[in-house]
Amino acid sequence: MSDKLKSIIIRYHEVEKYIAFGSEVNQETLETIELGKRIYQIFNQTVSELFTYEQEVAILALVISKKILSWDVEQMHELRQQLVLYVKENPQRLKEIIEVEYTDNTESQIDDYISGFISLPTTLKPKIKEAATEAEKETIIDVLKGNPQDAIIGNLKK
Question: Is the pTM of this model over 0.90?
């Protein structure tokens, strides 16, 4: 799981550099950007916040499965708090999964555990995302490229 996380973070940083050169952004690249933002937010913790091994595995699983993309970046802190509490209150099943030898079925079992958390009525619901207009997408791309002036002028013309 840590190798997958490392791969996602590396790709996120590559995409950031790529965008700086003014390149077009496709859907896969946008997903990488959004996933990277969420990774940094969900792992942003204070010195006093210490997670157990099981809690770290649960957070990693939420990221690796890309289920984290359902929530806005602003929701990451609260989502992490709820997930950590869920693992604290329901540790046994996850411990049983991760304490045995890793098999092809292990990731599937961890994914089921995370799905159980997501399906709880008390779990933070994702904000409903409205489809971005073409002008909004162009504005975001111009800002990421470092051309906020172009973003403003371009949208005034539309």
Answer: no
CA distance 62 to 17: 26
Q: Amino acid identity, residue 4?
A: K
Count the helix, strand and coil residues of the chain and give each as a percent rounded to the nearest 5: 70, 0, 30
Q: Give the model confidence (pLDDT) of 80-113 as tens digits.
A: 999 999 999 999 999 999 988 888 899 899 999 9
CA 135 to chain CA centroid, nearest Å: 25
**Residues of 20-50 as b/e, b for ≥16 C-beta within 10 angstroms?**
eeeeebeeebeebbbbbebbebbbeeeeeee
Tokens of 52: 């157990």
Residue 66: give the domain boundaries: 2-127
Separation of alpha carbons 23 and 75, rounded Å:
29
> Could you tell me if 114 and 140 lie in one domain?
no
Q: Give CA separation, 109 vs 42, 106, 147, in Å.
A: 22, 5, 45
